[in-house]
Structure formats: C-alpha cells, structure tokens
Amino acid sequence: MKKLVILLAIASIAASASMAMAGASPKTGVNGSMHDINFAGGGSYKSDQFKRVCAFCHTPHNALPNGSVPAPLWNHAPSTVNLDPYTWASPMNSAIAFNNDPLVGPSRLCMGCHDGVTAVDSHGSAGSFNGGNTPLSAHYTDALGNTAKRYIQDLTVTHPIGFLYADAVAKRNSNGNSEIQAASNGFIADGQYTKLQSTFNTNARSLTLTPKRIQDTLYSGYLTCASCHDVHNSVNAAPDPTTVAAGNSYNYFLYAQEEGSAICLSCHTK
C-alpha cells in the first residue's frame, strides 16, 4: 500500500528554543512561554513598556481592519513574504488541492514572526506604542547539537500546509486504503508512548485521544501551522515523563507528543 509521502519539518514553525531553553512548561498558558515576547527575548527583543503579553498579537482597540487578517483584533503586521509552496513528492497526491496562498489562514499570522523578516517585537497602532523592530532571525543549537533556526524561508522543505484535509482523506483512503485519520478524530493523548512503541499501525490498538479534534484546528478545511501547534500553550502536549528523566525536555507547542511520533500518527496511519 502506497503511503502519503511528505517531508517532515525538522524545525517546526512554532518550535521553542533549545531543549535547555524550552520556555514555560506545556499547558501553562502563554505567559512566560516562548510566545511571551517579554520573556522570550532575553534581551534580544524589546519588551512591551506595560509588560503586556497579548499586545504583541491582539488589542481591544485600533486593531487591523476586519477582513485584512484572519484573526480577532489583530495587532501585529502580517508577513508579506511569498515563499515557494510545497509540491507533492508523489503523483498520487495530485488531486489534493492547495490554496492559491499556501500561507492561508493562521499560517500568514505565524509567519508574521517566523519569516525571519517581520519584526517580532513590533505592535500597536501606527507606532503609538514604542515597540521594537527586531526580526526572528537567530539560530540556536537543537537537542542533537545541530544548528537550527526559528524561522521558515522555504515551504518546500517543511510539512505541507495550505491543502484541504478532506482531499487528503478522500485520496489516500480510496481503494480500500486507510492512510489518513478522519478529521473528527482527536489527537493522540499524552501517555500513549508505550502503546505506540508496540506497533506503528495506529488502527491496530485502542489509543486515548484528546477532546481537541483535527477538524477543530483546520481553517475552512485547510491544514495550517495552527493545525499542529497550540500557539497559546494551553492544551498542547507535555513530554513523556520517562524521556524527560533521560534529559529530553521540550515545548514545541504541539497538540500531541513527539514520543512515539504521536503528533505524526494523529493524522497518519502507518
């Protein structure tokens, strides 16, 4: 049975810093996390003069006009970069439609910080607040000692985004195949590492799933950055305790754990 061929992102768009600087623990909220610019900058970014956390993305007044960005009360400049979109490695996937804008929906907002060009610490209406102008362009050392970056400049080498999830289900589950999980399924819950070790066939055993469903994370049916990443650090996955004891600690804002490839297997049946 042929499988959907994809390239998995080594450094995810919403990845935190290195293992040693993982920011606040998962499920503890955005305050103090790597998405709290006042905290995350460590002197690199200019913090908000009132030490507000939400203000870097949202504001109750003078937000960008409705319709200009797909987000409520947006307070940050959206990215204007145009990146080469992902192309399917398998001709079998040609029927899976991409949006004309591969950064459709929340992905454009994520890239407002993670494109390496737009200033992370800029916010406020017409410069009424003295924000900064520093882009997220630094590199860091990952858990394997390799140099990695926190920004994306090429969508051809990351997990595809901007495609219709229903198309993938229909195409890859045709002819008796069952390769993509239904959008009504939840993500694989924390603590399933032992079960995932036994077999990669995610339909061969009973797995506990989260109340957060795949379809809850799609944007008008399209898979985006926010389909994998919980930017508010509220219902994301915590590292498996057994691997934390071995020195593996991380917070990538993912809806499922890295252990056992739970995040991958939440959608892919292997």
Architecture overview:
This protein is mostly loops and 270 residues long. It is 13% helix and 5% strand. The chain contains 6 helices and 4 strands; from the N terminus they run ααββαβαβαα. It has helices spanning 37-40, 106-114, 165-172, 193-198, 241-245, 262-265, and strands at residues 139-141, 147-149, 186-188, 209-213. It has a two-stranded antiparallel sheet. Strands 3-4 form a two-stranded antiparallel ribbon. The model is unreliable at 1-22 (pLDDT under 50).
The gist of it:
This protein has about 270 residues and is low in regular secondary structure.
- Rg result: 19 Å
Helix count from the secondary structure assignment: 6
The beta-strand count equals: 4
Shape: globular
What is the arithmetic mean of pLDDT? 83
Features:
two-stranded antiparallel sheet, 13% helix, 270 residues, 6 helices, disordered N terminus, little secondary structure
List the helices and strands and how they pair.
Elements (H helix, E strand, L loop, with lengths): L36 H4 L65 H9 L24 E3 L5 E3 L15 H8 L13 E3 L4 H6 L10 E5 L27 H5 L16 H4 L5
Antiparallel strand pairs: 1-2, 3-4
